[in-house]
Amino acid sequence: MSTSAPTRTDGYAWGHLCSLVAVGVGVAAACAAAEGAAEPSIRWLPESLRLLVRGGNYGRMIRLRDGRVMACFDRGGHGCVALSTDDGTRLAEPVRVATFPHGVATNCELLQLHDGAILLFVNERPREVGEQRFGIRVYASRDSGASWQDHALAYQAGARPENGCWEPAAIQLADGEIELFFANEFPYPESREQEITLLRSHDEGRSWGPPERVAFRPGRRDGMPVPLLLGDGSGIAVAIEDQGVRGKLQPAILFSTLELRWRQPCIGPDSPQRWPALRSPPPPRIYAGAPYLRQFPRGTTILSYQTDEFGEAWTLAVALGDPSARNFGTPVVPFRPDAGRACLWNSLFIRDEQTVTALSTTTIGGVPGLWAIDGRLEP
User: Which domains does the chain have, with CATH numbers?
Assistant: First the structure.
């Protein structure tokens, strides 16, 4: 969970001034040319800007095996899903899947398994301090989202926000193992520390093994993990927000080979399996948290995060990296929200070989909700 407050920034370096030029259209190629580098870039398409769900929050998308797109989000404190038959341009009427009577069911993530079943991971967050505990619950659909069942309570943390669990996200490996990652304060009741925890399932998410500590920076807060199976088969990259990169929360990458699958020593601050995501990290005073990681079919990786680098309100920044999830370059800003409005809890969806959809909880034209915009990978 992010805890840093936004701050005003001034005196941006040249590379970051390029980002401001790219607001709205996102032409990072101009920056690359100015720096003498030939790099891929994203050309954002202003005409694709659209409201997906009024009042939607924490939006994510996946493509199902039948070709349709499924989105998940929370609205009014309930976990919802909605289908799209036009590549995520529009969503059908949302279906409420998850409700937590003692608080909110939020920060949903989707995963379609090899057998076609769809899992929805939901973060249960109590509204008041009492007996109810923070948890991660799994719902399942075996009819392409027509109906959903409560599948499993994967994990429970403490009853207080400072001892909670947060931000679940999962992948499935070729042999069927599901790896569920989340940020976890529960092991540290006497401090504000937080680790990245892993749970494994070998029965389609019905039961889960004991929690394993994947990454921990003593005295700090590793958070908001998003796993990605790298396309070249080299291993698993997990984007996190890391307080130890340059002071405030900034994006970092954790890595494990498919042979080890995190059965290795916990990734500490000096591990070679942890590195800063951005090739040129912003100044230490800059907040750059809540990362999201995806990969184009041709290998280029793409990272989003929310940051106060470009003004007082947090906004969405997007950068491109190499096939190993390293060297993410100059960030560009896809959205232009209303003045003073933030872009929060963002995500990315690879729509096709050259198109990415960025999703953000923001307010545009006075309308708050889940907004989306498409971008084209060039050249």
Answer: 14-378 (2.120.10.10)
